[in-house]
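Researcher: Before we compare anything, I want clean individual predictions. No alignment, no superposition, just each chain on its own. First chain goes here; please echo the sequence and then give the structure tokens.
Model: Echoing the first chain and its structure:
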Amino acid sequence: MKKMAVTLHKDELERLCQIMADGDKDGALLFVREVLEEKVKANELPHCVPFYDVGYNPGQADSFKKNS
């Protein structure tokens, strides 16, 4: 897996700081599952395709998304 940087929105950062201040292990696991897991999955999706790739179609990235 490649390296990645994670950007947290203000509310996510506040939530993480509160979890760390409280030492909330269950909250930490929930944060990882709800916030970080989604960001990692989104990072693994294809982001660009060379213009010469004739096999590309506009909805191609949708096939990599998790069906909810």
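Researcher: Okay. Second chain, same rules.
Model: Second chain and its structure:
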Amino acid sequence: MSTKNDYSDAEWKAISTAPVAAGLLITASDASGLAQEVVVVGHAISTSTLGDAPEIVKVLTHHIKAGGGTPDMPDLPGGGHAPTKAALISVVRAAVGALQRKSPAEAESYKAWLASVTAKVSCASMEGRRNGNGRPQLNPDEDEALRQLTDVLAVSLGTTPLVARRS
């Protein structure tokens, strides 16, 4: 399995910031619950080594803990929501691409893990919001952000926790 040393600095930066980028893409779509959702992102990452976590996630989590427990943040441009969202998607795309090139055996489990982090943030975002049937609901901007992430991750909604938010 791969480690930080298997990647260039830019590739590792993408891999290590992709979970934060994925979570921030959702939170940037609705700032009303930003503080709660950022806490959820941090918790989702820090508990990732529980259970069946992919080896790259264990390496990443160890890196975060060794650095004081704070995950690396992606570089974000100024200029509003559109450039920020594009930069966040780009980070996730670069991380997935690096893994697919250098450690294809880990790529699918890493993508599923990113989807699970995103699902946890989405669930936190939906708290207190209900649709006409009383079900939790994302706002349209959050829903679009989640759709963009699932496209980049190329994960099936039927095989990840993301399916719960579409119910």
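Researcher: What stands out in the second chain?
Model: The chain has one domain: 8-166. Additionally, The mean pLDDT is 75.
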